[in-house]
Amino acid sequence: MEYGRTRDPDMLARNPNAVIPTIEDDGFVVWESNVILRYLSRKYGLMNVYPEEVELRTDVERWMDWQQTTVGPSMVPVFWGLVRTAPELRDHDAIDKSRDRYEHFMSMLNERLGVSQHVAGSEFSMADIPVGIMAYRWFNLDIERADLANLARWYEGLTQRPAFKNNIMIGLT
Asked: What does the pLDDT read at residue 140?
């Protein structure tokens, strides 16, 4: 956005969707956040976060897809309404409805984290990364939030991870 590069011809040649993230690794272009995570894990052997066992891997992928197809769309109107829209142009009814739906999904995650230390089991996995981004926005948007103790515990753990601090906790932009 502030760099204005997503519609430059060289960027559109890499990603015709004109969005980030997009990576180029040894000439191979990959776009879509969760696909990038899967690609990097497979290519660089990060199997500790992307388990081989089919049930564990499926659970990781289920939560990643849930983040992308369910939580993300519920969060977008709140995020865009409060962060990317001038105050005088905000649709507060749409923001409130979206916040309620977002809270519903964060409550589901809270329940999951009541029986599991991490999103997809007892160990940190790739699922914690995209879901953690949704939690970062949940805890940092200027909205009312339910007291979700399990979510808060898990999120606090994420905030202690250097990669999360350096790459996610960089402000809402």
From this structure: 97
Integer Cα distance of 132 and 26 in angstroms = 28
Is residue 84's pLDDT more than 60?
Answer: yes
Asked if 14 and 31 count as a contact pair (C-beta separation under 8 A), the reply is: yes
Query: What's the rounded Cα separation, in Å, for the pair 101 and 138?
Result: 12
**C-alpha atoms less than 13 angstroms from C-alpha of 36 in its C-beta half-sphere:** 14
**What stretch of H or E contains 28?**
strand 28-31
Task: Output the pTM of the full model.
Answer: 0.90
Tokens of 21: 């993230």
User: In the chain, what's the furthest Cα-to-Cα distance?
Assistant: 51
pLDDT digits (tens, 9 = 90+) for 44-69: 988 789 998 999 999 999 999 999 99
Q: 3-state DSSP call for residue 25?
A: strand
- pLDDT over 70 at 3, yes or no: no
CA dist., res. 125 & res. 34, Å (int): 13
Q: What HEC string does 143-166 produce?
A: CCCCCCHHHHHHHHHHHCCHHHHH
Distance CA(129)–CA(68), nearest Å, equals 12
